[in-house]
Amino acid sequence: MGDRDWRPFVYGGLASIVAEFGTFPIDTTKTRLQIQGQKSDPRHVELRYTGMVDCFVKTSQQEGVKALYCGIWPAVLRQATYGTIKFGTYYSLKKWFANRRGGGGGGESVTTDTLCAALAGGLSSAIANPTDVLKVRMQVGDEKRHLVRCFMEMYRVEGVRGLWRGVGPTSQRAALIAAVELPVYDGCKRRLTPTLGDSPVNHLASSALASLGSAVASTPLDVIRTRLMNQRKVKNDSSYSQVKIYKGTVDCLVQTIRNEGFLALYKGFVPTWLRMGPWNIIFFVTYEQLKIMY
After folding, report:
1. pLDDT tens string 23-49
2. Where are the domains of the chain?
3. Positions of the Solcar repeats (predicted)?
4. I need a surface site. Which of 13, 27, 244, 245 has the fewest CB within 10 A?
5. Considering the chain, what percentage of its residues have pLDDT values greater than 90?
6. Half-sphere exposure of 93 (CA within 13 A, CB side)
């Protein structure tokens, strides 16, 4: 396998953490916009925010600027696992298939890159799902305790299934994002290299183009998985029976469209796109620089 095969995993994890810190407040506004307006959940029926900017301002004024970073530590923990596994697996698999096909970039194909990216995205997201659940609940404002205590309480009250709530749409979304984002980035980078070279300008332009496609493709699944993660199903506790919850991905999809219309699936699209753009730019520029430095 070679002595450099571990580096995509390390670079992917470090670059993901840097990108997460830089864009987390946008992710918080996206999550809150996606949660509001659920007619089947009495906790979030009210439309508190009119858009990303309004959510950003109201959250800062009512709860403090610190609230925009509520959930950052499970998010960082998620990126340390998700980012490490996702990008390391993708680039390792891609290199392996390229070598099998004849070596070098000439052995790459769009189909192979897409399959490698989807596998890496789905697998890494499923493993990191508990950190994603906690991140969502802290961003919404339902969890204020210490990271470890939150995990212990979630496990005590909701069991193992609570830690993997929403894992289906989460993995599907991650696989979809990766299948669009990574091959598009690599393809754009190859096409722009003759003009721009393997430079930060090339990395910036390629990552910006990859972000738009992944945002359009993934937002509906992101809305569904956010709502599934935010709901609670307490073990052996009838006091929660009055809260109607979604039965699964399909039920959440149907109820959302029926009660709020098709466009509800694109709630939070603007912050999703605005976050994916800077996130990918920070990530890929950091990743490429790490490759050069080490």
Report:
1. 999 989 988 998 888 777 777 788 889
2. 6-99+109-166+218-231+238-293
3. 7-96, 108-191, 198-293
4. 244
5. 39
6. 20
Residues 6+ apart with CB under 8 A from 88: 6, 8, 9, 10, 12, 13
How is residue 31 written in tokens?
């999550």
151 vs 71: CA distance, rounded Å: 12
Amino acid of residue 188: C
| 165: DSSP letter | T
Tokens of 48: 């508190």
**Helices first, then strands: H and E counts in the chain:** 10, 0
CA atoms within 13 A on the CB side of 94: 25
Q: Answer for the pair 275, 55: CB distance below 8 angstroms, yes or no.
A: no
Angle, helix 7-35 to helix 200-230, in steps of 10 degrees: 50
Q: Which two tokens stand for residue 216?
A: 């359009």
Please identify every stretch of the chain with a pLDDT value under 50, giving residue numbers as ranges.
1-2, 105, 239-242
Name which of 142, 6, 138, 144 is nearest 77 in CA terms.
138
The answer to whether the beta carbons of residues 71 and 26 sit under 8 Å apart is no
Per residue in 74-115, pLDDT tens?
A: 889 888 999 999 989 998 898 888 888 765 545 568 889 999
